[in-house]
Amino acid sequence: FTFDHSYWSADSKDAHFATQKMVYNDIGKEFLHHSFDGYNTCIFAYGQTGAGKSFTMMGAPQADLKGVIPQTCEEMFERIEEETDEDTTFSVEVSYMEIYNEKVHDLLNPANNNKNLRVREHPVLGPTWKT
Asked: Other C-beta atoms within 10 Å of 56: how many?
């Protein structure tokens, strides 16, 4: 395996400690840049239970603890507001999925939380999921 980044976040006093902002600057900014270039983008957080994936992605309400998702959304909507004019419009679509024990869950639709979503490959739309 090769990794683009690896972070240490166990002790905030450690010289190697990675803040939420550092993670966003390394991952979220590039992700957002590619989105504005017109590409579909995806961040895949992988690791064992308790490793910090959810915290990295969502964070906490305090400004310095916001995760990749809220920081990306803030910057994305700021850029959309700045770059929208009579000739330019934007469309934003978001999915937030969890794969746990071989089951796919839609985290944006709590009504489907107990349902295992079936992932399918659509010839035009690419990967899709059904309840």
From this structure: 21
Tokens (6 digits) for 15: 């010289």
- pLDDT one-digit tens code per residue, 17-30: 999 999 999 999 99
Phi, psi of 20 (to 5 degrees): -60, -35
CA distance 97 to 129: 10
Among 89, 110, 88, 90, which residue's Cα sits nearest to residue 98? 110
Strands (E), 17-125: 97-100, 103-106, 118-122
102 pLDDT above the threshold of 70: yes
pTM of the model: 0.81
Least confident of 3-17, 82-96, 114-128: 114-128
Please, which residues have CB within 8 angstroms of residue 88's CB and are 6 or more apart in sequence? none
Q: Which residues pair with 121 in a beta bridge?
A: 127
Sequence-separated (6 or more) residues with CB below 8 Å from residue 85: none
| Cα–Cα distance, 116 to 131 (Å, whole number) | 7
